[in-house]
TrEMBL record:
GO terms for molecular function: transmembrane transporter activity. This is Amino acid ABC transporter, permease protein. The chain crosses the membrane at residues 26-48, 60-83, 89-108. Its main location: membrane. InterPro entries: AA_ABC_transptr_permease_3TM, ArtM/GltK/GlnP/TcyL/YhdX-like, MetI-like, MetI-like_sf. The keyword Transport applies. The lineage of its organism: Bacteria, Thermotogati, Deinococcota, Deinococci, Deinococcales. It comes from Deinococcus marmoris.
Length: 223
C-alpha cells in the first residue's frame, strides 16, 4: 500500500465519521435497552430456576438452554421474519431490541444464578433466624451481596451487547455497522468506513470498561 492509497483510506474513514456517529447512538441505545430490560427478566428466570416448582423450573432452564445453544443471528431471524407467519409483525427496532433482550436475559440469568449460589447458605439461615421471610432475605441480604459478585460479568455482558448490536443490521436497523455499509454503498470504498466503525466500537467498549472498573472499585470499598 503506497502513501496515496493510505491517505485515501484515512480520508474515507474520516469522512464517514459523522454518519457513523449517528448510527453509534442507536447502537448504544440498543445495548442499554437490552441490558435494562434483560436484567429484570434474567433475575426472574434465575429465581424461577432456583425456587419455582419442578415444571416451571424446567421451563426456565429450557429457555436458557435454547437461547444459549442457538446463534443470536438465528434468534433475530426467527423473531423478525418468523413471527409474521403467526400474524405478529414487528418494527425492525422493536424486533431487534426484543431479540437482544431475550438473548441477554438468558446469559444474565446464569451470571445472577452463579452470584446468588456463591453466597454462603448460612446467611440465609441467619436471616430466617431473625424473622425475615424468604423474599425479604433475598431482597435485603442475598441480592445486594450477589450484585457485587456479579458486577464484573454484568459489565462484560453490556460490552458484549454493544458488539452484538451489529447483528441487527440484517433487519435493516441503521445502527453503527449498517451506517458503515450505507456509506460504502455511496463511496465504493469499504476499508475506511469499516475501519472507522471498528474504532468507534472500540472507543465505546473502552469507555464502558473504564466505568466498569470504577464501579468495581466503589463496590469493593463498600460504597
Amino acid at each position: 500500500m503506497d502513501t496515496e492509497q493510505l491517505q485515501l483510506i484515512l480520508q474515507s474513514a474520516w469522512a464517514s465519521v459523522p454518519a457513523l456517529l449517528v448510527g453509534a447512538r442507536l447502537t448504544i441505545g440498543f445495548a442499554l435497552a437490552a441490558m435494562v430490560l434483560g436484567l429484570p427478566l434474567g433475575l426472574a428466570v434465575t429465581l424461577l430456576r432456583l425456587y419455582a416448582p419442578g415444571p416451571v423450573r424446567w421451563l426456565a432452564g429450557l429457555y436458557v438452554s435454547f437461547i444459549r445453544g442457538t446463534p443470536l443471528l438465528v434468534q433475530i431471524f426467527v423473531i423478525y421474519y418468523g413471527l409474521p407467519s403467526f400474524g405478529i409483525i414487528l418494527d425492525p427496532v422493536v424486533g431487534g431490541v426484543l431479540a437482544l433482550t431475550l438473548n441477554a436475559a438468558a446469559y444474565l440469568s446464569e451470571t445472577i444464578r452463579a452470584a446468588i449460589l456463591s453466597i454462603p447458605r448460612g446467611q440465609h439461615e441467619a436471616a430466617y433466624s431473625v424473622g425475615l421471610s424468604k423474599a425479604e432475605t433475598m431482597r435485603l441480604i442475598i441480592l445486594p451481596q450477589a450484585a457485587r459478585v456479579a458486577l464484573p460479568s454484568l459489565g462484560n455482558s453490556l460490552i458484549g451487547l454493544v458488539k452484538d448490536t451489529s447483528l441487527v443490521s440484517v433487519i435493516t436497523v441503521v445502527e453503527l455497522l449498517r451506517s458503515a455499509q450505507l456509506v460504502i454503498a455511496r463511496t465504493f470504498e469499504p476499508f475506511g468506513p469499516y475501519l472507522a466503525a471498528a474504532l468507534i466500537y472500540w472507543a465505546i467498549s473502552s469507555a464502558l470498561e473504564v466505568v466498569q472498573r470504577r464501579l468495581e472499585r466503589r463496590f469493593s470499598r463498600g460504597g
